[in-house]
Amino acid sequence: MAAQKINEALEHIAKAEKYLKTGFLKWKPDYDSAATEYGKAAVAFKNAKQFDQAREACLREAEAHENNKALFHAAKAYEQAGMMLKEMQRLPEAVQLIEKASMMYLENGTPDTAAIALERAGKLIENVSPEKAVQLYQQAASVFENEERLRQALEMLGKASRLLVRGRRLDEAALSLQKEKSIYKEIENYPTCYKKTIAQVLVHLHRNDYVAAERCVRESYSIPGFNGSEDCAALEQLLEGYDQQDQDQVSEVCNSPLFKYMDNDYAKLGLSLVVPGGGIKKKSPNAAQDKARGPAAVGSHADEEEDEYSGGLC
């Protein structure tokens, strides 16, 4: 079966090369027909699992389309060449070709297709190079935003923010979350703004920037419904505990369902949050009782301990 598909592919390549030849009566290559034959060859090679040859056929198809000024079809062929590289686990090279395709989609006036290609490239490279994936998601978000497709832009920004948090690139994560929150506010999705404020505060506290965290909450009072929401109350309690170095209070807030059921990357920030200096310990029950009884009672308790050993150890 594989041998049959390979022979079929080679026949299509021979036809393509024939279409590209010129002669006395044929002054111009037939790029359109050649591109079609290279495309058929690529499919046959792919079915035979000859991915490198399929990639080469896709690249020749793309070149023929470019010579024919058919940018959209050239971009599609470059994208397919990238997918063949993916099959060979050559992911950085695959992403390069898909990026090239996205630029051609933009040049052709099809930005939505360009953004979808960038998202696809981001998914491919996410586990290998999160830094590159962040860049691709941000580019996709920018394209969607320019086209006023804000929900799609938010989806891309959300992916970028989570990757930045996962990679502990917290300064960039704070900016990315602010961008998300601004767009959610623009489309009047206020409850999600509250959640983004929680994420921002956790990021700022992990950056050891209490002032930025407090400012973030203060600025959110302008969002309709935030003041008086459970999100606002929890954040005020969190900031109070952090400011007073009360680890128990901070942990109680961060272990609440409101925090624990956020996106996993943000929930982890909450669970790992430690107050400066390691926090204060809760007073023991005996200490609390002594304080209630006053200094005299404390002195009496000390005298009892002294009397116990007054006769020596024997």
TrEMBL record:
One GO BP: intracellular protein transport
Main location: Golgi
Domain of life: Eukaryota
InterPro entries per record: NSF_attach, TPR-like_helical_dom_sf
Molecular-function annotations in GO: soluble NSF attachment protein activity; syntaxin binding
Biased composition (Acidic residues): 303-314
Keywords recorded for this protein, A-Z: ER-Golgi transport, Golgi apparatus, Membrane, Protein transport, Transport
Region (Disordered): 282-314
Record Gene3D superfamilies: Tetratricopeptide repeat domain
Cell compartment(s), UniProt: Golgi apparatus; Membrane
Free-text function comment from the UniProt entry: Required for vesicular transport between the endoplasmic reticulum and the Golgi apparatus.
Protein known as: Gamma-soluble NSF attachment protein
